[in-house]
Amino acid sequence: MYHYRVEDMTCGHCTSTITKAILATDKNAKVDIDLATKSVKVESTEDFEVIREAIVEAGYSAAFI
Ligand SMILES: [Cu+2]
Hints:
This protein is α+β, with helices and mostly antiparallel strands. It has helices spanning 12-25, 48-57; strands at 2-5, 30-34, 39-43, 63-64.
């Protein structure tokens, strides 16, 4: 499982945008977001960096944890 910290994720709109961006990259990914801790956990067969870039392309930062 991959774990990212998305500091600029602030509301439900952000979480849905990020979830859609990840699913557009890997439709079978499992996305688990905790807004309070800015945490995005992803289970995917894609590379860690590919998923990270999907989050960045959606307009957010994605730091490694
Ligand atoms: Cu938002």
